[in-house]
Amino acid sequence: MISSKPKVGTSVEARQQWHFLDPQLLDWIKEADNVQRFLTQFLGLRKAIEPEACSIAARYASIEHRKALSISFQNMKRAAACHDYAAWTINDHQFHKTIFLATGNPFYIPFANILESLFKTFIDESSTGGRFCLEEHEAIYDAIMTGDAFKARTSSRLLLNDHNQKLALVTPS
């Protein structure tokens, strides 16, 4: 955000130069900017990346990743049954983070870190009427556990569809 050069001074970089995948910057932006607009743009990123991550995870997830995904999903089911929003949020985040890690692709790992920074804010702002979207998560879970890459990708797209979100459509600036 800021550049500093000897004998030139310090200046604020143009927004296009900022590193938007930096968790510290994301924490600052979600507090400073229009959070609805910011999260809508984040949803756009998720739609572009997460379905493919699910597909790759279905093909390459290790036994350890599948166990972690299973634990997260079982905890999500319990949280949904008890209407425990806090437990749902923690385990939903872990579920999606595990998917990115399960790709085995180091370029997907930063997205697990982005989720760390944004997930609770995203769920708070985007969840429709407190709905847990358990069926959509179960379809992703089943597809990854059975190694069905096509179904994992399709199920992720269904989860991220606009009808599951209450974020307003925002055009890019």
SSE layout:
Layout: E1 2-5, E2 9-12, H1 23-32, H2 35-60, H3 63-82, H4 85-102, H5 109-126, H6 134-146, H7 149-160
Antiparallel strand pairs: 1-2
Helix pairs in contact: 1-5, 2-4, 2-5, 2-6, 2-7, 3-4, 3-6, 4-5, 6-7
Domain GntR C-terminal: 41-162
Organism: Vibrio maritimus
GO molecular function, one term: DNA binding
In brief, what are we looking at here?
The chain is 68% helix and 5% strand.
Tell me what the structure shows.
The protein is mainly alpha-helical. It has a single domain, classed as Four Helix Bundle (Hemerythrin (Met), subunit A) (Up-down Bundle), CATH 1.20.120.530. 68% of the residues lie in helices and 5% in strands. The protein is built from seven helices and two strands. It has helices at residues 23-32, 35-60, 63-82, 85-102, 109-126, 134-146, 149-160; strands spanning 2-5, 9-12. Strands 1-2 form a two-stranded antiparallel sheet. Helix 2 (35-60) packs antiparallel against helix 7 (149-160), helix 3 (63-82) packs antiparallel against helix 6 (134-146) and helix 6 (134-146) runs antiparallel to helix 7. The protein is globular and about 60 Å long. The model has no long low-confidence stretch (mean pLDDT 81).
